[in-house]
Specification:
With about 220 residues, this protein is an all-alpha fold. It has helices spanning about 1-15, 25-50, 60-110, 115-140, 150-160, 160-210. Helix 1 packs antiparallel against helix 2 (about 25-50), helix 3 (about 60-110) packs antiparallel against helix 4 and helix 3 packs parallel to helix 6.
């Protein structure tokens, strides 16, 4: 209705401008009036436009939430897997350094027998680091969530709607992620101790050497 009124006013104004006696100031006033009416019409159209709210409680909202929960659970599982892989890569790199240093310390034991005690303690601490790295690399019962066709058939026998199956899968991913989180924290603690031993090993050996052979 407002659009029809605006168009009629616009036609009247344009017809009025057609007279040759119209002065320049009147033309400017009429142009400004047209601009004001255009803005008013645009504002009225925006106010009358319905806002898209998406799914509502009684029509699809629960299914949308279930799909979102499943997506977040999968993302959490992927992030945990990447975090564990980073820890294992660090453990693998540290293990390479530890093996090299242990071989060097053992060779020094045969050539510098006077430093036997500091060197043997250094070797033992480095071995502890190596054991922690091996634990991190090879003793991680990681759970990868997957569903076989047979398991999916069993789920479909109990659950008959997309909503129920989506919620079931989201719960399954979340449960496996919780178990993996516990395991991730354990290997994270193991790597923290490995780094503490690795950094403190030369310092401890140096202090023992000073105690045996005081400089001052």
């Amino acid at each position: 209705m407002s659009q029809i009124i605006f168009n009629n006013i616009k036609l009247v104004i344009i017809s009025f401008i057609g007279f040759k006696q119209l002065q320049q100031i009147r033309v400017r006033f009429i142009i400004d009036l047209i601009n004001v009416l255009s803005k008013m019409s645009f504002k009225m159209n925006i106010e009358n436009k319905e806002i898209e709210v998406g799914e509502v409680r009684d029509d699809g909202l629960r299914l949308w939430c279930a799909k979102l929960a499943l997506e977040y659970a999968k993302d959490e599982a992927n992030r945990l897997d990447l975090a564990v892989q980073r820890l294992k890569n660090r453990a693998n790199n540290l293990l390479g350094w530890v093996i090299t240093l242990i071989i060097l310390v053992i060779s020094l034991l045969f050539t510098h027998r006077e430093f036997f005690l500091p060197l043997i303690i250094l070797a033992l601490l480095l071995m502890a680091v190596g054991i922690l790295c091996v634990v991190t690399l090879y003793s991680t019962p990681w759970i990868y969530t997957h569903i076989t066709p047979y398991e999916m058939d069993l789920i479909q026998e109990r659950l008959t709607t997309e909503l129920e199956i989506t919620e079931q899968l989201a719960d399954l991913y979340k449960l496996d992620s919780m178990k993996n989180t516990i395991e991730y924290k354990n290997i994270q603690i193991a790597m923290q101790y490995a780094w503490v031993f690795f950094i403190s090993a030369p310092l401890v050996a140096f202090l023992i050497a000073l105690w045996i052979f005081p400089i001052f």
